[in-house]
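Hi team,

Filling in the usual template for the complex we talked about on Friday. All components are listed, including any nucleic acid strands or ligand strings, so the model treats them as one assembly.

SUBMITTER: L.P.
PURPOSE: interface mapping
COMPONENTS: four
RESIDUES: 560
SEQUENCES:
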Amino acid sequence: MTAPPKLPSVAQLRVLYADTDQMGVVNNVIYLRWLEIGRAEWLRQRGQPYKQLEKLGYLLPVVEAHLRYREPARYDDVVDVAGAPTEVRAASVKFEYQLRRAADGVLLCEGWTTHACLSPDGKVRRFPPELTSLFQADPR
Amino acid sequence: MTAPPKLPSVAQLRVLYADTDQMGVVNNVIYLRWLEIGRAEWLRQRGQPYKQLEKLGYLLPVVEAHLRYREPARYDDVVDVAGAPTEVRAASVKFEYQLRRAADGVLLCEGWTTHACLSPDGKVRRFPPELTSLFQADPR
Amino acid sequence: MTAPPKLPSVAQLRVLYADTDQMGVVNNVIYLRWLEIGRAEWLRQRGQPYKQLEKLGYLLPVVEAHLRYREPARYDDVVDVAGAPTEVRAASVKFEYQLRRAADGVLLCEGWTTHACLSPDGKVRRFPPELTSLFQADPR
Amino acid sequence: MTAPPKLPSVAQLRVLYADTDQMGVVNNVIYLRWLEIGRAEWLRQRGQPYKQLEKLGYLLPVVEAHLRYREPARYDDVVDVAGAPTEVRAASVKFEYQLRRAADGVLLCEGWTTHACLSPDGKVRRFPPELTSLFQADPR
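RESULT (copied from the run log):
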Protein backbone atom coordinates (compact mmCIF):
# COMPACT_ATOMS: atom_id res chain seq x y z
CA MET A 1 0.00 0.00 0.00
CA THR A 2 1.46 3.32 -0.98
CA ALA A 3 1.62 6.06 1.58
CA PRO A 4 -0.63 9.04 0.97
CA PRO A 5 0.86 12.54 0.44
CA LYS A 6 1.87 13.93 3.78
CA LEU A 7 -0.48 16.44 5.40
CA PRO A 8 1.13 19.12 7.59
CA SER A 9 0.93 18.44 11.32
CA VAL A 10 -1.29 20.78 13.34
CA ALA A 11 -0.76 19.31 16.82
CA GLN A 12 1.18 16.81 18.87
CA LEU A 13 -0.13 14.57 21.59
CA ARG A 14 1.30 11.93 23.85
CA VAL A 15 -0.29 8.51 24.28
CA LEU A 16 -1.70 7.93 27.78
CA TYR A 17 -1.70 4.64 29.64
CA ALA A 18 -5.48 5.02 29.68
CA ASP A 19 -5.41 4.98 25.85
CA THR A 20 -3.87 1.50 25.66
CA ASP A 21 -5.61 -1.85 25.91
CA GLN A 22 -4.44 -5.30 26.91
CA MET A 23 -3.02 -5.91 23.44
CA GLY A 24 -0.35 -3.41 24.55
CA VAL A 25 -1.32 -0.81 21.94
CA VAL A 26 -3.71 2.11 21.66
CA ASN A 27 -7.29 0.88 21.52
CA ASN A 28 -9.15 1.64 18.29
CA VAL A 29 -11.79 3.81 19.98
CA ILE A 30 -9.22 6.42 21.04
CA TYR A 31 -8.33 7.60 17.53
CA LEU A 32 -11.62 9.44 17.00
CA ARG A 33 -10.56 11.72 19.84
CA TRP A 34 -7.37 12.44 17.95
CA LEU A 35 -9.27 13.31 14.79
CA GLU A 36 -11.17 15.93 16.78
CA ILE A 37 -7.81 17.43 17.77
CA GLY A 38 -6.78 17.48 14.12
CA ARG A 39 -9.76 19.45 12.86
CA ALA A 40 -9.94 21.71 15.93
CA GLU A 41 -6.31 22.76 15.62
CA TRP A 42 -6.57 23.30 11.86
CA LEU A 43 -9.50 25.65 12.50
CA ARG A 44 -7.73 27.41 15.36
CA GLN A 45 -4.64 28.00 13.24
CA ARG A 46 -6.84 29.62 10.56
CA GLY A 47 -8.29 31.97 13.15
CA GLN A 48 -11.69 30.25 13.39
CA PRO A 49 -11.76 28.04 16.48
CA TYR A 50 -14.70 25.65 16.44
CA LYS A 51 -15.94 27.23 19.66
CA GLN A 52 -16.34 30.49 17.77
CA LEU A 53 -18.14 28.75 14.88
CA GLU A 54 -20.69 27.43 17.37
CA LYS A 55 -21.14 30.93 18.79
CA LEU A 56 -21.80 32.17 15.28
CA GLY A 57 -24.49 29.51 14.96
CA TYR A 58 -22.68 26.88 12.88
CA LEU A 59 -22.58 23.40 14.38
CA LEU A 60 -20.56 20.74 12.58
CA PRO A 61 -21.53 17.31 13.92
CA VAL A 62 -19.78 14.26 12.50
CA VAL A 63 -22.03 12.40 10.08
CA GLU A 64 -19.53 9.87 8.79
CA ALA A 65 -16.13 8.71 9.96
CA HIS A 66 -13.52 6.42 8.53
CA LEU A 67 -10.33 5.10 10.09
CA ARG A 68 -7.55 3.02 8.58
CA TYR A 69 -5.25 1.72 11.33
CA ARG A 70 -1.85 1.04 9.79
CA GLU A 71 0.63 0.63 12.63
CA PRO A 72 -0.04 0.40 16.36
CA ALA A 73 0.52 3.46 18.51
CA ARG A 74 2.05 2.62 21.87
CA TYR A 75 2.14 4.03 25.37
CA ASP A 76 4.09 7.28 25.67
CA ASP A 77 4.50 7.67 21.90
CA VAL A 78 4.40 11.24 20.70
CA VAL A 79 1.97 11.47 17.80
CA ASP A 80 1.87 14.16 15.11
CA VAL A 81 -1.72 14.97 14.24
CA ALA A 82 -2.51 16.30 10.78
CA GLY A 83 -5.99 17.36 9.78
CA ALA A 84 -7.32 19.51 6.97
CA PRO A 85 -10.55 20.04 5.04
CA THR A 86 -10.42 18.48 1.60
CA GLU A 87 -13.94 18.94 0.26
CA VAL A 88 -16.49 21.60 0.98
CA ARG A 89 -20.07 21.65 -0.27
CA ALA A 90 -22.99 23.97 0.39
CA ALA A 91 -23.71 22.57 3.84
CA SER A 92 -21.09 19.91 4.52
CA VAL A 93 -17.34 19.58 4.76
CA LYS A 94 -14.90 16.69 4.72
CA PHE A 95 -11.72 16.58 6.77
CA GLU A 96 -8.85 14.21 6.20
CA TYR A 97 -6.37 13.16 8.88
CA GLN A 98 -3.02 11.51 9.32
CA LEU A 99 -1.55 10.38 12.60
CA ARG A 100 2.18 9.79 12.55
CA ARG A 101 4.66 8.65 15.16
CA ALA A 102 6.71 11.78 15.76
CA ALA A 103 9.94 9.85 16.37
CA ASP A 104 10.18 8.51 12.82
CA GLY A 105 7.22 9.86 10.85
CA VAL A 106 5.64 6.44 10.43
CA LEU A 107 1.96 6.68 9.52
CA LEU A 108 -0.03 5.08 12.33
CA CYS A 109 -3.52 5.84 11.14
CA GLU A 110 -5.30 7.84 8.48
CA GLY A 111 -8.93 8.72 8.25
CA TRP A 112 -11.59 11.18 7.30
CA THR A 113 -14.78 12.61 8.68
CA THR A 114 -17.66 14.41 7.05
CA HIS A 115 -19.64 17.05 8.87
CA ALA A 116 -23.05 18.55 8.31
CA CYS A 117 -23.49 22.25 8.90
CA LEU A 118 -26.43 22.78 11.25
CA SER A 119 -28.01 25.74 12.98
CA PRO A 120 -28.41 25.53 16.77
CA ASP A 121 -31.97 24.26 16.30
CA GLY A 122 -30.67 21.33 14.28
CA LYS A 123 -31.63 22.48 10.77
CA VAL A 124 -29.26 22.13 7.83
CA ARG A 125 -27.58 25.46 7.20
CA ARG A 126 -25.47 26.59 4.25
CA PHE A 127 -21.96 27.79 4.97
CA PRO A 128 -21.55 31.53 4.54
CA PRO A 129 -19.00 32.52 1.85
CA GLU A 130 -16.24 33.20 4.38
CA LEU A 131 -16.45 29.67 5.77
CA THR A 132 -16.53 28.15 2.31
CA SER A 133 -13.41 30.13 1.50
CA LEU A 134 -11.78 29.09 4.75
CA PHE A 135 -12.33 25.40 4.01
CA GLN A 136 -10.94 25.85 0.49
CA ALA A 137 -7.79 27.53 1.78
CA ASP A 138 -5.54 24.48 1.64
CA PRO A 139 -5.98 22.77 -1.72
CA ARG A 140 -4.16 19.45 -1.81
CA MET B 1 -9.01 -4.60 55.68
CA THR B 2 -12.50 -5.80 56.45
CA ALA B 3 -15.04 -5.93 53.68
CA PRO B 4 -17.88 -3.41 53.94
CA PRO B 5 -21.50 -4.61 54.32
CA LYS B 6 -22.78 -5.71 50.96
CA LEU B 7 -24.97 -3.28 49.03
CA PRO B 8 -27.64 -4.80 46.76
CA SER B 9 -26.73 -4.93 43.08
CA VAL B 10 -28.71 -2.65 40.78
CA ALA B 11 -27.08 -3.53 37.45
CA GLN B 12 -24.65 -5.81 35.70
CA LEU B 13 -22.13 -4.88 33.06
CA ARG B 14 -19.50 -6.69 31.08
CA VAL B 15 -15.93 -5.40 30.78
CA LEU B 16 -15.00 -4.30 27.26
CA TYR B 17 -11.62 -4.71 25.63
CA ALA B 18 -11.64 -0.91 25.32
CA ASP B 19 -11.86 -0.72 29.14
CA THR B 20 -8.55 -2.54 29.67
CA ASP B 21 -5.04 -1.11 29.55
CA GLN B 22 -1.67 -2.63 28.85
CA MET B 23 -1.40 -3.86 32.45
CA GLY B 24 -4.05 -6.37 31.32
CA VAL B 25 -6.71 -5.02 33.68
CA VAL B 26 -9.42 -2.38 33.61
CA ASN B 27 -7.90 1.09 33.63
CA ASN B 28 -8.69 3.21 36.67
CA VAL B 29 -10.51 5.90 34.68
CA ILE B 30 -13.27 3.50 33.61
CA TYR B 31 -14.73 2.94 37.06
CA LEU B 32 -16.30 6.41 37.27
CA ARG B 33 -18.49 5.36 34.35
CA TRP B 34 -19.60 2.37 36.37
CA LEU B 35 -20.49 4.55 39.36
CA GLU B 36 -22.79 6.51 37.07
CA ILE B 37 -24.53 3.25 36.19
CA GLY B 38 -24.90 2.47 39.89
CA ARG B 39 -26.67 5.69 40.83
CA ALA B 40 -28.71 5.85 37.60
CA GLU B 41 -30.10 2.36 38.07
CA TRP B 42 -30.83 2.91 41.76
CA LEU B 43 -32.88 5.97 40.78
CA ARG B 44 -34.62 4.17 37.93
CA GLN B 45 -35.61 1.28 40.19
CA ARG B 46 -37.18 3.80 42.61
CA GLY B 47 -39.22 5.26 39.77
CA GLN B 48 -37.21 8.49 39.45
CA PRO B 49 -34.81 8.15 36.51
CA TYR B 50 -32.16 10.88 36.54
CA LYS B 51 -33.43 12.03 33.16
CA GLN B 52 -36.75 12.83 34.80
CA LEU B 53 -35.05 14.66 37.67
CA GLU B 54 -33.37 16.91 35.13
CA LYS B 55 -36.70 17.56 33.44
CA LEU B 56 -38.12 18.57 36.82
CA GLY B 57 -35.25 21.05 37.15
CA TYR B 58 -32.93 19.15 39.52
CA LEU B 59 -29.38 18.67 38.25
CA LEU B 60 -27.01 16.54 40.34
CA PRO B 61 -23.44 17.14 39.19
CA VAL B 62 -20.65 15.23 40.92
CA VAL B 63 -18.74 17.47 43.32
CA GLU B 64 -16.53 14.87 44.91
CA ALA B 65 -15.61 11.31 44.06
CA HIS B 66 -13.64 8.63 45.79
CA LEU B 67 -12.53 5.24 44.52
CA ARG B 68 -10.80 2.38 46.34
CA TYR B 69 -9.54 -0.19 43.84
CA ARG B 70 -9.25 -3.53 45.63
CA GLU B 71 -8.90 -6.20 42.98
CA PRO B 72 -8.38 -5.81 39.24
CA ALA B 73 -11.33 -6.24 36.92
CA ARG B 74 -10.43 -8.09 33.73
CA TYR B 75 -11.64 -8.28 30.15
CA ASP B 76 -15.01 -9.97 29.76
CA ASP B 77 -15.66 -10.10 33.50
CA VAL B 78 -19.27 -9.60 34.46
CA VAL B 79 -19.47 -6.98 37.18
CA ASP B 80 -22.29 -6.46 39.65
CA VAL B 81 -22.84 -2.77 40.25
CA ALA B 82 -24.30 -1.64 43.55
CA GLY B 83 -25.09 1.98 44.26
CA ALA B 84 -27.29 3.67 46.84
CA PRO B 85 -27.67 7.05 48.52
CA THR B 86 -26.33 7.02 52.07
CA GLU B 87 -26.58 10.65 53.16
CA VAL B 88 -28.94 13.36 52.09
CA ARG B 89 -28.76 17.00 53.12
CA ALA B 90 -30.77 20.06 52.12
CA ALA B 91 -29.08 20.42 48.74
CA SER B 92 -26.64 17.54 48.39
CA VAL B 93 -26.65 13.77 48.41
CA LYS B 94 -23.98 11.12 48.80
CA PHE B 95 -24.03 7.82 46.96
CA GLU B 96 -21.95 4.79 47.86
CA TYR B 97 -20.97 2.06 45.42
CA GLN B 98 -19.61 -1.43 45.31
CA LEU B 99 -18.40 -3.22 42.21
CA ARG B 100 -18.15 -6.97 42.53
CA ARG B 101 -17.08 -9.71 40.16
CA ALA B 102 -20.32 -11.53 39.47
CA ALA B 103 -18.65 -14.92 39.20
CA ASP B 104 -17.56 -15.05 42.84
CA GLY B 105 -18.77 -11.88 44.52
CA VAL B 106 -15.25 -10.55 45.09
CA LEU B 107 -15.22 -6.82 45.76
CA LEU B 108 -13.29 -5.15 42.94
CA CYS B 109 -13.80 -1.53 43.85
CA GLU B 110 -15.79 0.58 46.25
CA GLY B 111 -16.36 4.27 46.20
CA TRP B 112 -18.63 7.19 46.81
CA THR B 113 -19.68 10.39 45.14
CA THR B 114 -21.33 13.52 46.47
CA HIS B 115 -23.66 15.57 44.34
CA ALA B 116 -24.89 19.12 44.59
CA CYS B 117 -28.49 19.85 43.72
CA LEU B 118 -28.62 22.66 41.17
CA SER B 119 -31.31 24.36 39.16
CA PRO B 120 -30.84 24.48 35.36
CA ASP B 121 -29.28 27.94 35.72
CA GLY B 122 -26.61 26.53 38.01
CA LYS B 123 -27.88 27.82 41.36
CA VAL B 124 -27.92 25.64 44.46
CA ARG B 125 -31.42 24.30 44.96
CA ARG B 126 -32.92 22.49 47.94
CA PHE B 127 -34.38 19.06 47.36
CA PRO B 128 -38.18 18.98 47.57
CA PRO B 129 -39.53 16.71 50.34
CA GLU B 130 -40.30 13.86 47.95
CA LEU B 131 -36.67 13.68 46.80
CA THR B 132 -35.36 13.87 50.34
CA SER B 133 -37.67 10.98 51.20
CA LEU B 134 -36.57 9.06 48.14
CA PHE B 135 -32.90 9.33 49.09
CA GLN B 136 -33.69 8.24 52.64
CA ALA B 137 -35.55 5.18 51.43
CA ASP B 138 -32.73 2.69 51.93
CA PRO B 139 -31.19 3.23 55.37
CA ARG B 140 -28.06 1.15 55.81
CA MET C 1 -31.17 7.07 1.53
CA THR C 2 -32.78 3.66 1.83
CA ALA C 3 -32.42 1.79 5.08
CA PRO C 4 -30.23 -1.33 4.98
CA PRO C 5 -31.75 -4.77 5.69
CA LYS C 6 -32.13 -5.19 9.41
CA LEU C 7 -29.50 -7.21 11.24
CA PRO C 8 -30.65 -9.14 14.32
CA SER C 9 -29.86 -7.47 17.63
CA VAL C 10 -27.28 -9.20 19.81
CA ALA C 11 -27.24 -6.82 22.79
CA GLN C 12 -28.87 -3.81 24.36
CA LEU C 13 -27.17 -0.94 26.11
CA ARG C 14 -28.28 2.24 27.76
CA VAL C 15 -26.71 5.62 26.96
CA LEU C 16 -24.75 7.12 29.87
CA TYR C 17 -24.53 10.79 30.72
CA ALA C 18 -20.78 10.34 30.24
CA ASP C 19 -21.49 9.33 26.62
CA THR C 20 -23.11 12.65 25.74
CA ASP C 21 -21.44 15.89 24.76
CA GLN C 22 -22.51 19.52 24.96
CA MET C 23 -24.51 19.19 21.73
CA GLY C 24 -26.88 17.16 23.92
CA VAL C 25 -26.32 13.92 22.00
CA VAL C 26 -23.94 10.97 22.15
CA ASN C 27 -20.46 12.02 21.08
CA ASN C 28 -19.14 10.38 17.93
CA VAL C 29 -16.21 8.68 19.67
CA ILE C 30 -18.50 6.52 21.82
CA TYR C 31 -19.94 4.46 18.99
CA LEU C 32 -16.75 2.46 18.42
CA ARG C 33 -17.25 1.07 21.92
CA TRP C 34 -20.70 -0.07 20.87
CA LEU C 35 -19.34 -1.81 17.78
CA GLU C 36 -17.07 -3.82 20.08
CA ILE C 37 -20.17 -4.92 21.99
CA GLY C 38 -21.80 -5.94 18.71
CA ARG C 39 -19.03 -8.25 17.56
CA ALA C 40 -18.29 -9.59 21.07
CA GLU C 41 -21.88 -10.60 21.67
CA TRP C 42 -22.25 -12.14 18.22
CA LEU C 43 -19.21 -14.30 18.99
CA ARG C 44 -20.44 -15.17 22.47
CA GLN C 45 -23.83 -16.26 21.13
CA ARG C 46 -22.07 -18.61 18.68
CA GLY C 47 -20.15 -20.18 21.54
CA GLN C 48 -16.79 -18.56 20.73
CA PRO C 49 -16.26 -15.57 23.04
CA TYR C 50 -13.43 -13.36 21.84
CA LYS C 51 -11.63 -14.02 25.12
CA GLN C 52 -11.48 -17.68 24.15
CA LEU C 53 -10.23 -16.85 20.65
CA GLU C 54 -7.33 -14.96 22.21
CA LYS C 55 -6.56 -17.94 24.45
CA LEU C 56 -6.45 -20.13 21.35
CA GLY C 57 -3.92 -17.70 19.87
CA TYR C 58 -6.13 -15.72 17.48
CA LEU C 59 -6.06 -11.95 17.96
CA LEU C 60 -8.42 -9.83 15.87
CA PRO C 61 -7.31 -6.19 16.01
CA VAL C 62 -9.35 -3.61 14.13
CA VAL C 63 -7.59 -2.52 10.95
CA GLU C 64 -10.32 -0.40 9.45
CA ALA C 65 -13.50 1.12 10.81
CA HIS C 66 -16.36 2.99 9.26
CA LEU C 67 -19.27 4.75 10.91
CA ARG C 68 -22.32 6.41 9.39
CA TYR C 69 -24.16 8.46 12.00
CA ARG C 70 -27.80 8.76 10.92
CA GLU C 71 -29.75 10.00 13.92
CA PRO C 72 -28.48 11.24 17.27
CA ALA C 73 -28.59 8.91 20.25
CA ARG C 74 -29.56 10.68 23.45
CA TYR C 75 -29.04 10.28 27.17
CA ASP C 76 -30.83 7.29 28.66
CA ASP C 77 -31.86 5.90 25.28
CA VAL C 78 -31.87 2.13 25.10
CA VAL C 79 -29.95 1.04 22.02
CA ASP C 80 -30.24 -2.27 20.20
CA VAL C 81 -26.84 -3.38 18.99
CA ALA C 82 -26.60 -5.63 15.96
CA GLY C 83 -23.31 -6.99 14.72
CA ALA C 84 -22.43 -9.87 12.42
CA PRO C 85 -19.56 -10.99 10.20
CA THR C 86 -20.28 -10.42 6.54
CA GLU C 87 -17.04 -11.34 4.80
CA VAL C 88 -14.34 -13.76 5.79
CA ARG C 89 -11.01 -14.24 4.03
CA ALA C 90 -7.97 -16.35 4.81
CA ALA C 91 -6.73 -14.05 7.57
CA SER C 92 -9.26 -11.26 7.92
CA VAL C 93 -12.91 -10.79 8.68
CA LYS C 94 -15.39 -7.96 8.25
CA PHE C 95 -18.18 -7.21 10.69
CA GLU C 96 -21.16 -5.03 9.98
CA TYR C 97 -23.18 -3.23 12.63
CA GLN C 98 -26.46 -1.45 13.16
CA LEU C 99 -27.38 0.57 16.19
CA ARG C 100 -31.09 1.22 16.61
CA ARG C 101 -33.11 3.09 19.19
CA ALA C 102 -34.95 0.31 20.96
CA ALA C 103 -38.08 2.40 21.55
CA ASP C 104 -38.94 2.72 17.85
CA GLY C 105 -36.34 0.80 15.87
CA VAL C 106 -34.93 3.95 14.26
CA LEU C 107 -31.44 3.37 12.85
CA LEU C 108 -29.05 5.64 14.74
CA CYS C 109 -25.78 4.49 13.25
CA GLU C 110 -24.44 1.81 11.00
CA GLY C 111 -20.88 0.80 10.40
CA TRP C 112 -18.36 -1.88 9.73
CA THR C 113 -14.95 -2.95 10.90
CA THR C 114 -12.34 -5.20 9.36
CA HIS C 115 -10.03 -7.28 11.50
CA ALA C 116 -6.72 -8.95 10.81
CA CYS C 117 -6.10 -12.37 12.31
CA LEU C 118 -2.81 -12.30 14.18
CA SER C 119 -0.88 -14.70 16.36
CA PRO C 120 0.13 -13.48 19.84
CA ASP C 121 3.54 -12.48 18.45
CA GLY C 122 1.85 -10.17 15.94
CA LYS C 123 2.23 -12.26 12.77
CA VAL C 124 -0.60 -12.68 10.29
CA ARG C 125 -2.28 -16.01 10.90
CA ARG C 126 -4.83 -17.86 8.79
CA PHE C 127 -8.13 -18.74 10.36
CA PRO C 128 -8.53 -22.46 11.06
CA PRO C 129 -11.47 -24.07 9.19
CA GLU C 130 -13.74 -23.97 12.23
CA LEU C 131 -13.38 -20.21 12.54
CA THR C 132 -13.91 -19.68 8.83
CA SER C 133 -17.09 -21.72 9.13
CA LEU C 134 -18.17 -19.80 12.18
CA PHE C 135 -17.83 -16.48 10.39
CA GLN C 136 -19.79 -17.84 7.42
CA ALA C 137 -22.62 -19.02 9.61
CA ASP C 138 -24.93 -16.07 9.02
CA PRO C 139 -25.12 -15.37 5.29
CA ARG C 140 -26.97 -12.16 4.59
CA MET D 1 -13.23 26.82 51.54
CA THR D 2 -9.64 28.01 51.43
CA ALA D 3 -7.59 27.28 48.37
CA PRO D 4 -4.71 24.83 48.82
CA PRO D 5 -1.11 26.00 48.26
CA LYS D 6 -0.42 26.09 44.56
CA LEU D 7 1.46 23.18 43.04
CA PRO D 8 3.67 23.96 40.04
CA SER D 9 2.16 23.08 36.67
CA VAL D 10 3.79 20.22 34.77
CA ALA D 11 1.61 20.19 31.65
CA GLN D 12 -1.14 21.95 29.76
CA LEU D 13 -4.03 20.38 27.94
CA ARG D 14 -7.01 21.64 26.03
CA VAL D 15 -10.54 20.42 26.68
CA LEU D 16 -12.02 18.41 23.80
CA TYR D 17 -15.64 18.43 22.71
CA ALA D 18 -15.56 14.70 23.46
CA ASP D 19 -14.72 15.56 27.09
CA THR D 20 -17.93 17.52 27.64
CA ASP D 21 -21.37 16.20 28.50
CA GLN D 22 -24.87 17.55 27.98
CA MET D 23 -24.55 19.73 31.10
CA GLY D 24 -22.19 21.77 28.91
CA VAL D 25 -19.13 21.07 31.07
CA VAL D 26 -16.41 18.44 31.27
CA ASN D 27 -17.83 15.15 32.48
CA ASN D 28 -16.50 13.90 35.82
CA VAL D 29 -14.97 10.74 34.37
CA ILE D 30 -12.50 12.69 32.25
CA TYR D 31 -10.48 14.13 35.12
CA LEU D 32 -8.81 10.83 36.01
CA ARG D 33 -7.16 10.98 32.59
CA TRP D 34 -5.80 14.38 33.51
CA LEU D 35 -4.38 13.09 36.78
CA GLU D 36 -2.44 10.52 34.76
CA ILE D 37 -0.95 13.38 32.74
CA GLY D 38 0.01 15.14 35.98
CA ARG D 39 1.99 12.27 37.45
CA ALA D 40 3.47 11.17 34.10
CA GLU D 41 4.83 14.62 33.35
CA TRP D 42 6.18 15.08 36.87
CA LEU D 43 8.12 11.83 36.44
CA ARG D 44 9.30 12.74 32.96
CA GLN D 45 10.58 16.10 34.14
CA ARG D 46 12.61 14.34 36.86
CA GLY D 47 14.18 12.09 34.24
CA GLN D 48 12.23 8.96 35.14
CA PRO D 49 9.36 8.52 32.68
CA TYR D 50 6.83 5.98 33.89
CA LYS D 51 7.54 3.91 30.79
CA GLN D 52 11.10 3.51 32.01
CA LEU D 53 9.93 2.58 35.52
CA GLU D 54 7.90 -0.25 34.03
CA LYS D 55 10.93 -1.42 32.03
CA LEU D 56 12.91 -1.49 35.29
CA GLY D 57 10.18 -3.70 36.74
CA TYR D 58 8.25 -1.18 38.86
CA LEU D 59 4.53 -0.97 38.12
CA LEU D 60 2.51 1.68 39.92
CA PRO D 61 -1.21 0.87 39.58
CA VAL D 62 -3.71 3.25 41.15
CA VAL D 63 -5.14 1.79 44.37
CA GLU D 64 -7.10 4.81 45.53
CA ALA D 65 -8.24 8.01 43.88
CA HIS D 66 -9.95 11.10 45.12
CA LEU D 67 -11.35 14.04 43.18
CA ARG D 68 -12.82 17.32 44.41
CA TYR D 69 -14.53 19.14 41.54
CA ARG D 70 -14.59 22.86 42.38
CA GLU D 71 -15.46 24.70 39.18
CA PRO D 72 -16.58 23.31 35.84
CA ALA D 73 -14.07 23.03 33.03
CA ARG D 74 -15.54 23.93 29.66
CA TYR D 75 -14.96 23.11 26.01
CA ASP D 76 -11.75 24.55 24.60
CA ASP D 77 -10.46 25.68 28.02
CA VAL D 78 -6.72 25.38 28.45
CA VAL D 79 -6.01 23.59 31.71
CA ASP D 80 -2.81 23.72 33.74
CA VAL D 81 -2.08 20.32 35.22
CA ALA D 82 -0.06 20.12 38.41
CA GLY D 83 0.93 16.80 39.94
CA ALA D 84 3.57 15.85 42.48
CA PRO D 85 4.29 13.04 44.95
CA THR D 86 3.57 14.08 48.52
CA GLU D 87 4.07 10.88 50.50
CA VAL D 88 6.31 7.93 49.84
CA ARG D 89 6.38 4.70 51.83
CA ALA D 90 8.26 1.45 51.40
CA ALA D 91 6.05 0.22 48.58
CA SER D 92 3.52 2.95 47.88
CA VAL D 93 3.42 6.56 46.85
CA LYS D 94 0.79 9.28 46.94
CA PHE D 95 0.45 11.97 44.28
CA GLU D 96 -1.50 15.17 44.66
CA TYR D 97 -2.95 17.14 41.77
CA GLN D 98 -4.41 20.51 40.92
CA LEU D 99 -6.14 21.39 37.69
CA ARG D 100 -6.44 25.10 37.01
CA ARG D 101 -7.96 27.10 34.18
CA ALA D 102 -4.91 28.58 32.50
CA ALA D 103 -6.67 31.82 31.58
CA ASP D 104 -7.14 32.96 35.18
CA GLY D 105 -5.59 30.34 37.46
CA VAL D 106 -8.93 29.32 38.93
CA LEU D 107 -8.77 25.91 40.59
CA LEU D 108 -11.11 23.58 38.70
CA CYS D 109 -10.36 20.33 40.46
CA GLU D 110 -7.96 18.93 42.99
CA GLY D 111 -7.31 15.34 43.86
CA TRP D 112 -4.91 12.65 44.86
CA THR D 113 -4.07 9.09 43.98
CA THR D 114 -2.16 6.41 45.83
CA HIS D 115 -0.17 3.79 43.98
CA ALA D 116 1.17 0.43 45.00
CA CYS D 117 4.60 -0.59 43.77
CA LEU D 118 4.36 -3.99 42.10
CA SER D 119 6.72 -6.24 40.21
CA PRO D 120 5.62 -7.39 36.73
CA ASP D 121 4.24 -10.59 38.27
CA GLY D 122 1.95 -8.53 40.50
CA LYS D 123 3.81 -8.89 43.83
CA VAL D 124 4.30 -5.93 46.15
CA ARG D 125 7.81 -4.59 45.68
CA ARG D 126 9.73 -2.06 47.76
CA PHE D 127 10.99 1.03 46.02
CA PRO D 128 14.76 1.07 45.55
CA PRO D 129 16.51 3.98 47.33
CA GLU D 130 16.81 6.06 44.15
CA LEU D 131 13.04 5.98 43.61
CA THR D 132 12.33 6.81 47.25
CA SER D 133 14.69 9.77 46.88
CA LEU D 134 13.05 10.80 43.64
CA PHE D 135 9.60 10.86 45.22
CA GLN D 136 10.94 12.89 48.16
CA ALA D 137 12.50 15.45 45.85
CA ASP D 138 9.75 18.05 46.10
CA PRO D 139 8.83 18.51 49.77
CA ARG D 140 5.77 20.71 50.15
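MY TAKE: The beta strands of chain C are 9-14, 62-69, 78-88, 92-101, 107-116. The radius of gyration of chain C is 16 Å.

Thanks, L.
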